[in-house]
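Hey L., structure's done. Input below.
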Amino acid sequence: MSERVTFLLTEVVDSVRRWEDDEDAMAAATERLDGIVRGVVGEYRGVQVKPRGEGDSHFLTFPNPADAIACAVALQRAVADEVTLPLRAACHVGSAEMRNGDWYGTTVNRCARLRAAAHGRQSLVSVEAADAARDTLPDGVSLRSLGRHRFKDLDEPVEVFQVCAAGLVVDHPPLSSLAHSHGLVLPRSSFVGRSAECERVAALLAEGAVVTVTGAPGVGKTRLALEAAAQWSEHGAAPIRVAQPRVSPGELVVVDDADDATVTGPAVLTARAPIGAANEVVVRLSPLDELDSERLLRDRLADDAVVPAEAAGLCDGLPLAIELLARRASAVGADVLAQRLAADPLAVLGGDRRARPPRHSSVRACLDAAFGELDRDEQAGLLASSPGEPHWVARGWHEPDGPLPLVKRFLDDKRTGR
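Output:
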């Protein structure tokens, strides 16, 4: 059941680079930060949710926005002299649902988007939280409007406020929002999991690398590449060219299905295997773990949809399969869905005629596309390993000897030259 909750999310800016530069200093600094958070949050009736994601981020909840804003001020003041801890924070209020000790819902996602737009030493507040706290702010604390900003996954621009108080930095660069167009066609759904991989790709792009994202069919290569490219844009980097030659030095080139592309860095590509470019770094995606698989499924489900307990596990951590399962769960009951999954999982995980590219319309279409990428000898070898035509529905696609592992094995063999 949903309830109204105030969230305060914090994190250290550029933490990956700081850990790389001086691991010992960051270990000591984040230990101090953990102690500061534990000491301060209780003073404002806050609760620290179990750690999630990076060790230098904190997920806090409060009974009302005024307490959360006061806590943000206290935390910023406490780390004001910590050179290695440029903290950024965001506060938002709205409906959310508690499940298994964690919070889910669009309110959490919006708060995370707001936090990502802030700079070090800056605390941001949504218009909803600002309206709720305006008459109860602590003495000496005020909210300055930064205007309306557009954020990823949100349909309309929203007004954003900055927390101002004695001892806080008040002058900052423009927010890292989507104020300018990056030319990318991003899904409107939230990006779940993969934060470490996304940060790694973004860091490699900053070094001018050609990053080739590889992985099994349906594992989320395209989505990760787009998210990393959008992160590049949001942080004020050079413009992006999507599947087009670079016009000026420093532009980021993004190419999907780039098995035979000729490109120099910075560039992010998706491919079934490395393309052999100079300065190429391969980032191979693995399936989502159990926690992120469940989180993605819950995020995509309609509010009234119910799925069998084992449903996420049948998807083998493949984002495409999870997305398709969530759509089907919105149309049929849990009992019917369980029966259909047990009888014919591939028939359940498909049927989206509007999907772009078409191979994302179903898991079967994805497997067929992967099979089609193999040359004739490879196709023959795959068919020989399992008698019959490649009608994926004939065998459990998620079983060890099913079609997905077989196709993946052939692609891996081709990548390594075996």
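The first helix runs from residue 15 to 21. The first strand starts at residue 2 and ends at 12.

-- N.
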